[in-house]
């Protein structure tokens, strides 16, 4: 599994460090891994680590952000892509990179997935409230679906999950509409 785009000289070192950390995390918790052990496993120097990252957590958060950017880039450049494909494509992405995302979950870093979704939606603190609230609603709803899917072992296929997401969104919107129509 390579959670980064094709390596440039700078990306190559970051990729080595990321892959080494994911590999080490299969056997031990994040707090038990020292920067020295990580660098030795990645076969890079400590200076190289600190040139690219401030912490071990940042290795994982940057890798998650790169993966989502890579997914978005591929989708945006696919001439056959259409809006109905977005969610199934995203669920397929999480399915394809399940080993990486499973590491985040095992390390108690599931919130990294939410932060990555919020980043992709450009949900920032400087947005006006009327733009931020709908993005937050959407980001947390999508994350809730992905989060529950992972926590339950990601048993459904991306296609089945997409169908469930679509029907859930539809029934939720209908329920909200009915609720607001009943108000005096």
Number of helices: 9
Number-wise, the strands total: 0
**Major sheet description:** none
- The CATH topology turns out to be Tetracycline Repressor, domain 2
Between the first and last Cα atoms, what is the distance in angstroms? 56 Å
Order of helices and strands: HHHHHHHHH
Helix content: over 70%
Low-confidence stretches: 1-5
GO molecular function: DNA binding
DNA-binding region: 34-53
Keywords: DNA-binding
Domain HTH tetR-type: 11-71
Summary keywords:
184 residues, mainly alpha, Tetracycline Repressor, domain 2, 9 helices, elongated, disordered N terminus
Helix and strand topology:
Elements lengths: L8 H17 L9 H8 L3 H7 L3 H21 L9 H11 L1 H9 L4 H10 L8 H23 L6 H25 L2
Helix pairs in contact: 1-2, 1-4, 4-7, 5-9, 7-8
In words, what does this structure look like?
The structure is a single chain. The chain has 184 residues and is mostly helical. The protein has helices spanning 9-25, 35-42, 46-52, 56-76, 86-96, 98-106, 111-120, 129-151, 158-182. It has one domain: Tetracycline Repressor, domain 2 (Orthogonal Bundle). The protein contains nine helices and no strands.
